[in-house]
Amino acid sequence: MDHITSSDKRAAIAQASARISFPKSSGDFTDTVRELNDQTKVDDARRVAFLLVNEFSLISFATGLDPLRIANRLLGKRVYDYKVYSLDGESISSSGGISISVDGGLDDLRRLSRSFDRPEFIFVCSGVNVAHYAQDKALLGFVRDASRSGVKMGGLCTASYILAAAGLLDGRRCAIHWENLAGFSEKFPKAEVYADLFEIDRNVYTCAGGTAPLDLMMNIIGEDQSEQFVNAVCEQALTDRVRNSQDRQRLPLRARLGVQNPRILQVIEIMESNLSEPFSLLEVANQIGLSRRQVERLFRREMGRSPARYYLELRLERARHLLLQSSLPIVDIAIACGFVSASHFSKCYRELYGKSPQVERNSRDTLEPTI
Fold first, then answer.
1. How far apart are CA 121 and CA 333, in angstroms?
2. pLDDT tens digits, one per residue of 63-108
């Protein structure tokens, strides 16, 4: 056997190491990103203001702000100059009770928006009880004035409600959290609301909340930076991609219900798309190429109840959202959910939820926030 010398070992190790790709250190990674962005299209800092409304959604605020922080860190300079404001300039609580300190109040932001150094973007961020806060005349007046001055206005989570109340969404596409969709569309019929992650319509940016602000901000960062840089921010945020605006908010039916049968999923999709004017079971069956009896049997086997009962529960679920998140009269809610009379609606509602629609509405202020 040939003797292996120490120099032979070192040579073999060096050759093996050359074939292995090791992760770069954080310093090397940052240097690489800077090199990619030496020709960034941003000469001056892009100013961004976040206006937090009481009981705002913390996850929406955090996923809106942090991509800008990460971008600044990777670039080694403050390209995205962001500040945070509340209505009164005092620390403000999220819907989860977490207090956030701010840089100023509405008066400070108003003065700033009229100056040479005004922010390019102002993102209003709200959460639960948004219908109450959207009655604030000072807030609505500021939103209108800032938009007229040329500031790009944005709404995170339920803040589309505030922008709509200020008249900014008339004839514009917008997005809002799926749980608020029914009440919003009834309250603001002139707004073109969609169950999308985010919408950009001219100078108005709206977002559904949750983690969707991250995708909106990544699109804004992508206006200035290269695709490689956007991917680098994604890697820092531990997200594998930037979702587009039309990606769905909710889980697919298959995952949400744990149902695999494609016929059942077709039936439920038809039901969810026709709540205000319910189809008969025969009409639903005809659309998917089955008989009424086949749909009945299939539904009972897969869902443990009749299709008529499931359809009724979907309509009552929508009614509950409207009761809790809108000020529509109960009779209008009954009609919007496919009931022929308020008395029939009340009877069905009490049977499912154990309380009348009026009692449900009266109890909404005591409910635990969900957003």
1. 36
2. 999 999 999 999 999 999 999 999 999 999 999 999 999 999 999 9
Residue 61, C-beta contacts closer than 8 angstroms, at least 6 positions apart: 50, 52, 94, 100, 125, 156, 213
The pLDDT of residue 325 is: 76
Q: Which of 91, 69, 92 is nearest to 82 (CA)?
A: 69
3-class SS string, 278-315: CCCHHHHHHHHCCCHHHHHHHHHHHHCCCHHHHHHHHH
**283-308 residue pLDDT tens:** 999 999 999 999 999 888 888 889 99
* Cβ within 8 Å of residue 213, ≥6 positions away: 60, 61, 63, 64, 156, 157, 198, 207
DSSP states of 310-333: HHHHHHHHHHHHHHHH----HHHH
Pairing outcome for strands 173-175 and 192-194: parallel
| Cα 64–chain centre separation | 10
* pLDDT of 11 strictly over 60: no
Phi (first) and psi of residue 226, to 5 degrees: -75, 165
Q: How confident is the model at residue 353 (pLDDT cuts 50, 70, 90)?
A: very high
As a dihedral over the C-alpha atoms of residue 297, residue 299, residue 305, residue 310, rounded to 10 degrees, the angle is -140
Ranking 63-67, 85-89, 185-189, 338-342 by mean pLDDT, the lowest is 185-189
Q: Are 261 and 270 in contact (CB under 8 A)?
A: no
* Listed residue (309, 322, 305) closest to 278, CA to CA: 309
Maximal CA-CA distance, the chain: 97
- How many CB atoms are closer than 10 A to CB 242? 20
Strands (E), 163-232: 173-175, 192-194, 198-201, 204-207
Among residues 58, 53, 93, the alpha carbon closest in space to that of 211 is found at 58
Specify whether the CB–CB gap between 173 and 205 falls below 8 A: no
